[in-house]
């Protein structure tokens, strides 16, 4: 049922919302030590909730929810921060198109990526993306696996002098950077491992706006557009993001534009934020 392809788009789109902080990235880093960063934006215990909506021929319906959490844990005996992002379709959506996507990212306390996994149940299809990171000889190496819905395991490898990131780890690093000197129209490029390949993505900074989220709070936001990967030269806007203009860089809204409709994700609630919410304009 074509209109419920939103599940696939929502998973990718909201994940990219969480990495919108990638726009704050600095020039390329070349070793494990240079991939390390001080975490200024979030802490273990942070938990965020989002509502997902879909517009079909002028009718808005709630498509599901997304939950984002951070906690302390270990990975192969090493202390780490684990980020989880869970997408769950609404009862109405699941009655015709079951949707449940789970994304996991493991990083060192100094923000070096270690592991990424995405398990996606979308209709009758279940797929798994996995990325393992290593840093031999001053390089950033990713070993990627993709398990298709037919059970075929596809393997790829990628190695560069730059740090590589996935949908979640790039958010965690980038949320700590400062975008105060960005100019409207400025373009930012960054690499992202998907489990199948490493893609170069492009964001455009659009300026600042005030947005009222689903928690009935108005926030001063930084706004970015993500250009369609296949048609960057035509400047086709695929997604538009709103993140708070404070040290949390909290994602509060996403608009994504589809061939068959429009979808949105709105911030609903959060706890465990590390910094004061200085971007709040008005509370009801």
Per-chain topology:
Blueprint: H1 6-18, E1 47-56, E2 59-75, E3 78-89, H2 91-94, E4 99-107, E5 113-122, E6 125-134, E7 140-147, E8 153-160, H3 169-174, E9 187-193, E10 198-212, E11 217-227, E12 237-244, E13 251-258, E14 261-271, E15 280-283
Antiparallel strand pairs: 1-2, 1-14, 2-3, 3-4, 4-5, 5-6, 6-7, 7-8, 9-10, 10-11, 11-12, 11-15, 12-13, 13-14
Q: Total strand count, please?
A: 15
Strand count, sense and barrel status of the largest sheet are: 15 strands, antiparallel
- Indicate the structural class: mainly beta
Number of helices: 3
Task: Give the fraction of residues assigned to helices.
Answer: under 10%
Mean pLDDT: 81
Cα(first) to Cα(last) distance is: 39 Å
Strand coverage percent = over 45%
Q: Rg to the nearest angstrom?
A: 18 Å
Element string (H = helix, E = strand): HEEEHEEEEEHEEEEEEE
User: Segments where pLDDT lies below 50 for 5+ residues?
Assistant: 1-7, 21-30
